[in-house]
Amino acid sequence: MKKVIILVYGLIAYLVFLISFLYAIAFVGDFLVPKTINSETESSLLSAIITNVVLLSVFAIQHSVMARPAFKAWWTKIIGKPAERSTYILLTSLALLLLFWKWQAINTVVWEVNNNVLAMILLGIAALGWLIVLLSTFMINHFELFGLTQIFNNFKNRTSPTATFQTNYLYKIVRHPIMLGFIIAFWATPLMTLGHFLFAVITTLYILIAVKFLEEKDLRISLGKDYEKYQQKVPMIIPFTKG
Hints:
The protein is an all-alpha fold. The protein has helices at 2-29, 45-65, 69-79, 81-102, 116-140, 142-145, 148-155, 177-187, 194-223, 225-233, and strands at 109-112, 191-193.
């Protein structure tokens, strides 16, 4: 019964992730969904900035702290190893949904592209960014990354194998193609409002700082010389630069 509960729990966590990911595309792209990054609000400029910074900080803290090996080792003792990744995905997705729900738009225009061809090119680049994010998860192990492998192995009484170091496809060009995809998707827009600009600046800074000083440090510790050699050969996020 416990294994069934963990399986259902993991599937729900993955479903919530899919909802948050699809909503993120429409939220940042400012289309289709009822609340987007540019939806009208009645907040003052200062109130909107403070609210948005707090929301982004909640996501950044949750996402970074729960990804650290020391926290995962402690947390696994409480929730169990099979459900650890699913819980991380669920809470990350809920933090995103909270951000989308409470986001305060600041619609002062930073730039606007009125040329239809250029606007369509920028939208195409943004779509490419989201596609890079999705495809990059499958270039390593999408189902393990989002906890599905762990819950299915637990359900079938199988031990999940230790994750292996892989450098497939885009990972031969940059070490963190998922983050590259996010940065492209956040910045490529024909209409950049002040609220969107704030979102793009803070998320980009968070990505660069978290990857360089947290994630890469953990990877060097866990993978050792193999990852150090990888760092020397392949750039972190910007393609075709030095490692």
